[in-house]
Amino acid sequence: MENTQLATALVRLAHLVSRVYGEVSKEFEATPQQIQLLCMTLGGPTGMSEMSRALGLERSSMTGLVDRAERRGLVVRVRDPHDRRACGIELTDQGRKIALGAHSKVTAQVEALVGEISADDRERLESLVMGIIHTPRPTTDAPLQT
Amino acid sequence: MENTQLATALVRLAHLVSRVYGEVSKEFEATPQQIQLLCMTLGGPTGMSEMSRALGLERSSMTGLVDRAERRGLVVRVRDPHDRRACGIELTDQGRKIALGAHSKVTAQVEALVGEISADDRERLESLVMGIIHTPRPTTDAPLQT
DNA sequence: TATTGTTATACTCTATAACTATA
DNA sequence: TATAGTTATAGAGTATAACAATA
Predict the structure, then answer these.
(1) Beta-carbon separation of B8 and A107 below 8 A
(2) A12 CB within 8 Å of a chain B CB
(3) What architecture is the A19-134 domain classified under in CATH?
(4) Model pTM?
(5) Superkingdom, according to UniProt (chains A, B) (predicted)?
(6) Cβ–Cβ of A109/B21 closer than 8 Å?
(7) DSSP class of B137
(8) Which CATH number fits domain B20-134: 1.20.1250.20, 1.10.10.10, 2.30.40.10, 3.30.499.10?
(9) Chain A closest CA to B2's CA: distance in Å?
(10) Tell me: the pLDDT tens digits for A35-74?
(11) Counting Cβ atoms within 10 Å, is residue B93 exposed (0-12), middle (13-18) or buried (19+)?
């Protein structure tokens, strides 16, 4: 029998982090998906298709997500002058405020989750987790291997 | 300026794990919430109220979740003989099969996410993550401190 | 009175399929 | 033909408020 303690622990950690994410989103009167959309727009791609790929969503789901964000005045669609089919999304002032606020609050609360650990432990944990998340893996669209 | 690398890395790790969870759920033709419900029933509490607290859901949301699981033949409600208001949920054979199958597949794919690391690193990571998830924290109902 | 669970309702998120407009 | 994005539709998940039955 294999040792699956680590995987189980990581799944539980992920649930805890997701809960923090959800609670912070609620404080900003938004859903986690809306917050994720706003935060991604802070630094990532801004084209509809690109973003839907990055989020692992169908394009039609992306349309709805952006519709609701736009209706709430958090983002605006901007047409791409070079490709008249395409559009990107940009944060409004309010959207940016929420994105930055939620990001820093999530960060703070995840730090609180980690709690007091030695500088050495923190460095080790950080480098181990970085190793995992930076390992190249199949794109979102491709089914995971079994 | 604080160092928030660790928190950011943990959030991204949580997203990766959630994605694995979602993809595995899809393989079993269920939603992540249904799978979580089934897996919790394998070992955790089985009362409606207890489970809704554990999952951080309103009781009415729990009703809907269980309704759909029951309609699919994955669980059944059982009345509590000692308290005629209450009921618990039990896995059907099919529900148990799915719970076990999904659990082992999630575990395997999270292991794959971790990839090849030394036994030492694995042990360190495991103990650090365990430390985080086993730290006592406020119940789900209580708002997190700010 | 307090608790357990349900119902009614409204909204969000998501996917599939079919569509429009542009490349 | 292929790609970017939308629309229509259906189902799932969630919360709030009001309710029934039991403790």
Answers:
(1) yes
(2) yes
(3) Orthogonal Bundle (1.10)
(4) 0.91
(5) Bacteria
(6) no
(7) -
(8) 1.10.10.10
(9) 10
(10) 999 999 999 889 999 999 999 999 999 999 999 999 999 9
(11) exposed
